[in-house]
Amino acid sequence: MSEPREPAAQTAPEQAPEGPGPVPDGAFAADLDRHLTRTNELLNRMLAEVAKTPSTHAIFVDAGYVYASAGLLVAGTEDRRSFDLDAEGLIEAFIDKARVIFADSRLLRVYWYDGARRRIHTPEQQAIAELPDVKVRLGNLNANNQQKGVDSLIRSDLESLARHRAISDAALVGGDEDLVSAVEAAQGYGARVHLWGIEAADGRNQAEPLLWEVDSQRTFDLDFCKPFVTRRPVTTWEHDAEPPPSRDEVRFIGAQIAATWLVERGREALADLLPGHPYLPGAVDQDLLIEAERLLGRSLRGHAMLRRALRDGFWQHLQSQY
């Protein structure tokens, strides 16, 4: 009789490897607290660095506007050759004013925008460029002494500085309506634009659309501008015992000025001028008169025959070169 078999041993079912067990509530809370503490430390450090970094402002000066407005207000003329402008003193006054208005801000620099023939600095512009914290930016001058390209330079600088967060406030000294786009571009990047102007001798010397767009406005009056503008004296023959020059002398001076004019402006400007013969554009005629008076050391005001001789000499030289 065979022995009873023992039942086969049953293999235990395979179990999945044990993973990490649940984190106890206390450990999870402690880990989260460490992360929050670290994050708060980083935020506080960043805020401390931001607090130590002051706001920054820059001053943008349209020199053409300043010369015209200040000259008319103080000296009664927009013609630069009739008065001297203490640009260094005026720039320092603008900086001082900004220091008061933007008390918690530092100055980036002053941008001085002007025009020059072929964008070549005049001695006066060179002196301004050498001032500390001043950047001179030049547009061009056409044959009628009108600035070209200055507004686009202002827009480019304003927009670039605002886009890169280099400035928080911009003081704009100007009045041309073409500056509206520059203001809008800077404001689009979060900068505030403050329009500074010079008191108008009569009426208004800043475009209304520009006044509407800026964040604030400020006007400098006669008392502010007067120390920086000096009218140049002109010697008149009524108070001079020496007789006036002859017509031939004045005609020669006209030809001499024409030669310089042609070198500075080129034959393209001459081609634009010739169709108007025998008349000169107002700006060119004014420049001719002022330069002749400087060379002669005397005034030609009130001497129609001599002024006619001056224009004749100017035209004769230009026509001989065409």
UniProtKB/TrEMBL annotation:
For bias type Low complexity, the affected ranges are 7-18
Which Pfam families does the record match to this protein? Answer: NYN
Which top-rank group of organisms is this from? Answer: Bacteria
The name this protein carries in UniProt is NYN domain-containing protein
- Which stretches does the entry tag as region Disordered? 1-26
Q: Where is the NYN domain?
A: 58-199
Matches recorded under Gene3D superfamilies: 5'-nuclease (3.40.50.1010)
